[in-house]
Amino acid sequence: MKRHLYHIYLLLLLLPIRCYSQGLQFFGNENRIDERTSYSVFNNKSTHFRNQLSISFDISIRDFDTFGYIFRLEDRNTKQVYSFTYAYKDEHNSFFKFNAEGKDNLISVELDNSLYI
Fold first, then answer.
1. Which residues does 60 contact at the CB level (< 8 Å), separation at least 6?
2. Three-class SS of residue 82?
3. N or C: the chain end with fewer CB closer than 10 Å?
4. Using an 8 Å Cβ cutoff, are 26 and 38 in contact?
5. pLDDT 10s digits, 68-95
6. Model pTM?
7. 10 Å Cβ neighbour count for 111?
8. 3-class DSSP state of 96
């Protein structure tokens, strides 16, 4: 019995194992548009927010050299679209950006890539 356990232990040590925690994996610009991940929260129904909107999430980035939308928000009255994106800068740094699409970068936060592996 000990010999079997030893073989199982040895086999597990020799296998290349890559594990990720549970959650959603998003596919972005590197995939065809019909293969990209998307999720419509309000399913095309109008929802009203007054004065503030708070969103929280945990993130683990597998491929730093990518670009992707985390969310898009459309003001149907003004037709202004806001986006929160992840953008790769270099091997050490990336950015989160909150933009008024087609107009301005409203907020930009630089990230140390080593903290999000």
1. 20, 21, 23, 116, 117
2. strand
3. N
4. no
5. 778 888 887 888 988 888 888 888 888 8
6. 0.59
7. 19
8. strand
With a CB cutoff of 8 Å and minimum separation 6, the contacts of 23 are 58, 60
What does each C-alpha distance from 11 to 17, 20, 65 come to in angstroms?
11, 20, 33
Quickly tell me which residue has 């959650």 as its tokens: 23
Beta strands 81-88 and 67-74: pairing type?
antiparallel
Residue 100's DSSP bridge partners are 82, 104
**E strand or H helix at 105, and its extent?**
strand 104-112
Provide the CB-side half-sphere exposure for 2 (13 A, CA): 0
> In 3D, which of 68, 71, 72, 117 has the Cα closest to residue 95?
68
Q: How far, rounded to the nearest angstrom, does the alpha carbon of residue 97 sit from its chain's CA centroid?
A: 12
Residue 76 corresponds to which tokens in the numbers above?
């149907």
pLDDT, tens digit (0-9, with 9 covering 90-100), for 10-24 = 556 665 555 555 666
